[in-house]
Amino acid sequence: MKFKNLIVVFAITLMFSSCADWIFRIDVPQGNFLDKKDVAKLRIQMTKEQVEFVLGKPVVEDSFDHDTWYYLYQMKRGMKKRGEDFRKELTIKFVDDKVAEITGDFELSEDFNTPLDQ
């Protein structure tokens, strides 16, 4: 009798575990989604207002260093078949309220080192 109950419990557990992919789980995006086209518009010597117009407000502004902006984007996938989780970062450093350096996961355009005024 106990062996029969054990088989029933095992069968029910196996059925529920096979249905795990049927449960819909949403993707959870967090932060600023940055498009490659928008990042390609950035140029050296752009003002903070120009950068904000192109990319939007940064997710994080350093409280102690107002000349560093952080753009972060993270996607937590609800289901593995929709892809892997990923994270993208972009850090912009300003000198005298103008872009001096950009680092992160995005490739800058070939024209980045050419200011807009020229």
Properties at a glance:
118 residues, alpha+beta, five-stranded antiparallel beta sheet, 3 helices, rod-shaped, lipoprotein
Explain this structure:
The structure is a single chain. With 118 residues, the chain is an alpha+beta fold. Strands 1, 2, 3, 4 and 5 form a five-stranded antiparallel sheet that branches. It contains three helices and five strands, in the order αβααββββ. The protein starts with a helix and ends in a 14-residue tail after the last strand. Part of the Bam complex. Residues 31-102 form the Outer membrane protein assembly factor BamE domain.
Briefly, what is this?
InterPro entries: BamE (IPR026592), BamE-like (IPR037873), BamE_dom (IPR007450). Residues 31-102 form the Outer membrane protein assembly factor BamE domain. The chain has helices spanning 2-18, 36-40, 48-55; strands at 28-31, 60-61, 68-76, 86-95, 98-104.
Topology:
Elements: H1 2-18, E1 28-31, H2 36-40, H3 48-55, E2 60-61, E3 68-76, E4 86-95, E5 98-104
Antiparallel strand pairs: 1-3, 2-3, 3-4, 4-5
**Element pattern in H and E:** HEHHEEEE
Strand content: 25-35%
Biggest sheet, in brief? 5 strands, antiparallel
Overall number of strands:
5
Q: What is the share of helical residues?
A: 25-40%
List the uncertain runs.
none
| Content-based structural category | alpha+beta
Q: What is the first-to-last residue Cα distance?
A: 87 Å
Q: Count every helix, treating DSSP H or I runs of 4 or more residues as helices.
A: 3
**Large-scale geometry:** rod-shaped
Gyration radius, rounded? 24 Å
Mean pLDDT: 84
Function: Part of the outer membrane protein assembly complex, which is involved in assembly and insertion of beta-barrel proteins into the outer membrane.
Protein name: Outer membrane protein assembly factor BamE
Subunit structure: Part of the Bam complex.
InterPro entries: BamE, BamE-like, BamE_dom
